[in-house]
Each structure stands twice: as C-alpha cells, then as structure tokens.
Specification:
The complex is a heterodimer of chains A (295) and B (343).
Chain A (H helix, E strand, L loop, with lengths): L7 H27 L2 E2 L5 E2 L5 H8 L1 H34 L3 H9 L6 H12 L4 H9 L12 H25 L4 H8 L4 H12 L1 H16 L3 H6 L7 H9 L5 H46 L1
Antiparallel strand pairs in A: 1-2
Chain B lengths: L1 H24 L1 E8 L5 H10 L2 E8 L2 H9 L7 E2 L3 H9 L19 H4 L11 E14 L22 E3 L3 H11 L9 H17 E4 L4 H7 L4 E5 H7 L2 H4 L2 E4 L5 E10 L6 H11 L2 H11 L26 E3 L7 H13 L2
Parallel strand pairs in B: 1-2, 1-3, 5-6, 5-7, 9-10
Antiparallel strand pairs in B: 3-9, 4-7, 4-8, 4-9
Classes of the chains: A mainly alpha (295), B alpha/beta (343).
C-alpha cells in the first residue's frame, strides 16, 4: 500500500484522541455531576436529582446574573468589533504590516493577571487618569472609575482586542481592493462601498473574531473578580463560588452547562448559516452552468 | 540528517540521566500553603539542615485548597488548613495520624493557644502554625476620626473606599459579632439580621476582595479594609506603616488557627514530621513571628522576638473561632449568594 494513501482518519486520530480525552470526557463528567446530589463536604453523591436545575431555572437572580453576563459580553464584543475594523483595515493597507502586527501581539508577552493589575494603576483612585484630572483642576475629588460593571467591559475589551484584530486583518488582507473602486465606479459612495462590498466579503473574519471574543468574555472569571466591584459579578464567579465556598459541585456543574448551551447554539447557528450559503452558492453555479448550456 | 537525529537523542538521554540522578540525591518535601506564609530563610535553613528540597505551592483560600485536594490534587505532604477545614479534613479521612514522639517540640506550644483548639485537642492530626484574627486596617493619611468598631464601614466618608473580605464566614462572622451573636450562630433570626447588616455594608464597600486589600490600603486606593494584619504590614514600607492603623473591632472578631497537617498519601512522612518539629523550635518560631508580625504560639519563642507583633495573644480574648458547621453551611451559602450575586 502506498503510504500517502492512508485514510485521513489515521492522521486525525491523535487530534481526535486528544479532544475526546481533554474536552469530551471532562464535559461528560460535568454533565453527570450536574444531575447528582452535593456531598456535605464537597464532591457528589447519589441519588440523581434535578435540584440544581430547578433551583437555577426558578430563581430570578440567576436569570439576572445570566443577563448581566451576556450583556457585558455583548457590549465588549461590539466595542471590540467597532475598534478593530478600522485598525485591521489600516494594518492591511499599510506598508509596515509586520511591525504593526507585532505591536498588536506585544501585550501577550505580559502575563494576563499583570495586565489586569496594570489597569488598577491607570483607573484607580490614586491612578494615572485621576491624578491627571486632579492636576488639571477639572475635578476636585477622584472619580470612581474602578469596581464598576463598566470597568469590567473596558478591561475585557482591552484583553480580547487582539483576538478580533487578527482574524479581521487576515480577511481584509485577502480582500481585492479594486472591488471597492468598482463599487464606487458603479455609483456607491465610499461608505456605501465599504458597507456593501467590503463588509460582506470579510464576513468570515468578522464571525471568527466575534466568536473568539464573545465566548471567552462570557466565561470571564478573573476580570470581574478583580475589577468588578460589588455589582460587576459574572456567571464565572458564581461557578467558582459554588464549587469552592458552597461545596456544591452539582450546582456549579449545572451553571457551567449554560455556557455549553450558549456556545453550542452559537456554533449551530454558524454551521447552519454556512450550510445555507453553500447551498446558495451551489445553486448559483448550477444556474450559471445552465445558462452557458442554453447559449 | 540521521546522524544529527541520533546525536540529539543521545543528548536528551544524557540530560535525562543527569536529571534523574541529581533529583534522586535529595528528598523533596511538598508544601501546599498560603502565599508568603513561611519565610524563605526558614525554608532554606530546613533544606540545608535536612539535606532536602522544599517545593512550596500556594493557595488563596481554604476552599481552593480543599477543592483541589478533593478533586484529586496529589503529591503534597504538608498543608496549612485553618481550624474549620482541619476538622473537615480529619472527618473526611484525608490526614495522616501524627506520631507525637517524633515531635518533641510540641511541648513548646503556648497553653493559651492549645486551650482554644477544639477540633483536634490532642494534636492527633494537626499542629498549630500561627494564630491570629481578622480586623480592620485604616489608612490614617486620609482620615483620622473614626470608631474602632465594625460600624466604621457605615461612615459616609468611607463610601466606595472600603473593602470587605470575599469570604462568607469572615464577613458573616463580623456582622454576627457586631450584633453580639456567635460567629457560628445557626439561628435563622440572627443570620437574617446579620444579612441585613452586610447588605448595608455592601452599599458602602467598593468590592469584596481577598487579593488587593493589603496593597490597596497601603497605597491609598482604599481607606478602610477588612483583612489580615500580616498581609497588610507585609506590603508596607517602614514609612507607610506609620499611616496604617490596624485594630480588632471592639465588638470582637473571628479567630483563626492555621495548622500543619500531613496528608494521608504523603510519601515523605518522616521528613514532614521533621519539618513540623523544626517549625516548633523556639528560634525558628520566633523568626516566623518576626516575619509575619503575629504573636507566637510558641511560649519559648516569646523572649526571642525582635519585632513587636501587630497584636498580642491577650488581645484575642474577644475573638471567636470559626468552626465547621457541616451541612448547615447551606444556611450561610444561601445568604451569601443573595449578598454577592443577588440570587
């Protein structure tokens, strides 16, 4: 047998094994735990029970916290997208691409937590912003910039911005800019051309960026914990508290299932959209082919 | 190409052999404890005297430590749980019986400390490392007129500039003490009153915090923090210490005793016993107290201290130990979830 004709499955086995071991099996454990009874001192015991779910679904507080979590993540994602589009466009059309891309990636060289702490030096009561405003005389008392829900959004945006810029950059870079000129030749002004020609053709990059920012933002734990204040908590913090302080493993497993549900739903919608697009594309190709035949 | 590969393999093998033999020479003692809790000098001195290596891993709360061990975290020899978690770990069979004949220095323990130990009075599983309380620290650069009471949290001046620990038992304990109840109260009425009080405090604190209170109060980011004195003074320079007023509120506070315990699956039990005995040596114990600025639980260390601790053992009279409350923890959990997450 020729070596290169080994079926693809053989090559993908290591990957599949890795994923099933470190992704699928832990998730199955979480699913099972979420239906068990908490042990008094942590862990889980029999019997199977729906308690964790009924408690979660019937308590308005959970829904409010879920809403707050989703709202913070959506806001952060939208702001990231708004900030990243011009940046990615600029980098893709710049002559110093490599330098600019390096600058985008540089924050990754510093530890995640250190960068959160750095924000405290910027936004704190005795931080840069307040010291500057006090110095200019614009304010007399330091502003409360830290420990608010808005602070959580600001820091999440900062943390995940590169994850939005990079996929946008890579799709804008492949974009044929003469299409913009063509659009403008055909009567679109610059904004219309960007909106109707550029944006649709970099949709893949936008979706990738949104997924890469929204999903991790949803599961934020350290950011709301450190900069969130008394009203800035997210679901991730509740999961940790239920697991450790409350010693209620089934409850934290059940809340984790919300994340699994949201990400799975998002992925399904994405796949569905792709499938529809592919069908439309196939249909158009067939149409073109039939037209050619007619001619 | 092939030759490069072979020599690379040989090189790796060489590294592996060197690695194994040099590791094999020294025994390793794995400690799982609070950050900055055992001074580096003490660790180095032990390594030298007993020709071993100490691996010091840290946790930030009893709960984190316990969850990690319950979830299968293994390989640690000595852990430093507080009293309530010591009793849980004893009950759950996670600890090894301590061979008291191997720890002659147990006799050095101050009877005032051992008298407070109700979770393991005979030291069958645990030996106290440090004793202390949780209090309030004020940065007096910003404000100087205040009651030395938990009620300081209700002052208009501190709104948005104070923190409470993100610790259910500590915060509820503070509220219960303020109301004149026991920190281990299980009376629904009392717990509800305490909940209302914490909700009142929540309005004026910037955040519930276990990580930043020490740095925060020293830098002036926060004016009033609820926390552990040893952490706060650890962060401050000589000059900054002048501005920090740490006090035990007049209503009383919680009392904690952190213990050294040996885990059941410890593979270096002998060395672990040596370590505990070493910590109880008067000179070492004094060194630790000087480092943490905490009163020494070792009666023979008292005269060796060179620093004045933040508070003395005698100041702890009005402080009450947090005890394990078993399945009644759910009473506290429900209240805490309401306070923290609005559930």
């Amino acid at each position: 047998m020729n070596r290169s004709s080994l079926p693809g499955i053989v090559y993908s086995l290591p990957g599949i094994a890795w994923l099933s071991f470190f992704f699928l099996i832990p998730y199955i454990i979480i699913i099972i735990y979420s239906f068990l009874t908490p042990g008094i001192y942590g862990g889980v015991t029999l019997p199977f029970s729906l308690e964790s779910y009924t408690r979660m679904l019937t308590s308005p507080g959970y829904w409010e916290l879920l809403w707050q979590t989703v709202w913070i993540s959506v806001m952060a994602t939208v702001i990231c997208l708004g900030l990243s589009l011009p940046v990615a466009y600029y980098i893709a059309t710049s002559k110093r691409k490599n330098l600019l891309l390096t600058l985008v990636v540089i924050p990754f060289w510093t530890n995640f937590l250190v960068r959160i702490f750095a924000w405290m030096l910027v936004l704190g009561r005795t931080g840069l912003v307040n010291s500057f405003l006090l110095w200019t005389g614009l304010i007399e008392q330091p502003l409360q910039l830290m420990y608010r829900p808005a602070t959580v959004i600001v820091v999440i945006v900062y943390m995940y911005l590169p994850y939005m810029i990079l996929p946008l950059y890579s799709s804008i870079e492949k974009f044929d800019f003469t299409l913009l000129e063509a659009g403008m030749d055909l009567g679109a002004n610059r904004n219309e051309a960007i909106l109707k020609v550029l944006i649709p053709s970099i949709k893949g990059g936008i979706i990738a960026g949104v997924i890469l920012v929204f999903i991790p933002a949803l599961g934020s734990y350290a950011i709301p914990d450190l900069v969130g204040g008394t009203e800035g908590a997210m679901l991730g913090n509740l999961i940790a508290k239920q697991l450790t302080v409350a010693r209620n493993w089934p409850s934290s497993s059940a809340i984790s299932m919300i994340f699994l549900l949201i990400s799975t739903l998002g992925l399904l919608v994405y796949l569905r959209m792709n499938a529809i697009q592919a069908r439309v594309r196939r249909f158009r190709v067939r149409e073109d082919y039939m037209k050619e035949q007619e001619q | 190409m092939k030759r490069i590969f072979t020599s690379f393999l040989l090189f790796l093998t060489f590294l592996a052999i060197v690695g194994i033999t040099s590791c094999g020479r020294k025994a390793v003692l794995n400690i799982y404890s609070w950050a900055e809790y055992v001074p580096q000098e003490v660790i180095e001195q032990f390594e030298e005297e007993f020709n071993c290596r100490i691996v010091y891993d840290t946790y930030d709360s009893n709960e984190t430590m316990y969850t990690k061990l319950r979830a299968g975290g293994a390989g640690y020899d000595i852990v430093f749980p507080s009293g309530d978690y010591t009793s849980i770990m004893i009950r759950e069979g996670m600890l090894k019986n301590i061979d008291r004949t191997k720890i002659p220095n147990l006799a050095n323990l101050d009877p005032r400390v051992t008298a407070k130990i109700n979770y393991d009075p005979e030291h069958e599983y645990s030996v106290p490392y440090m004793i202390g309380t949780t209090g309030i620290a004020v940065n007096t650069r910003y404000f100087s007129e205040y009651p030395r009471s938990w009620r300081i949290l209700e002052m208009e001046e501190v709104r948005g500039k104070a923190t409470l620990l993100d610790d259910m038992r500590e915060v509820m304990g503070a509220a219960l003490k303020t109301l004149g109840y026991s920190v281990n109260s299980l009376e629904k009425e009392q717990l509800n009153e305490a909940k209302e009080l914490v909700l009142l405090w929540k309005d004026s604190v910037a955040k519930f915090d276990n990580e930043l209170f020490a740095k925060g109060v020293v830098s002036g980011e926060f004016w009033v923090v609820h926390g552990y004195g040893e952490n706060i003074f650890y962060e401050a320079t000589e000059d900054e210490i002048e501005d920090i007023d740490f006090f035990i509120p007049e209503e009383g506070s919680t009392l904690w005793i952190d213990n050294m315990v040996i885990l059941k699956d410890s593979k270096h039990s002998d060395l672990a016993h040596e370590f505990i005995n070493f910590i109880l040596r008067p000179d070492i114990s004094a060194e630790i107290s000087d480092y943490l600025l905490l009163p020494s639980p070792n009666s023979k260390a008292a005269e060796l201290l060179t620093e004045e601790p933040i508070y003395e053992l005698a100041d702890l009279e009005n402080c009450e130990m947090i005890e394990d409350i078993g399945e009644d923890l759910v009473l506290f959990n429900d209240i805490w979830n309401e306070i923290r997450f609005g559930l």
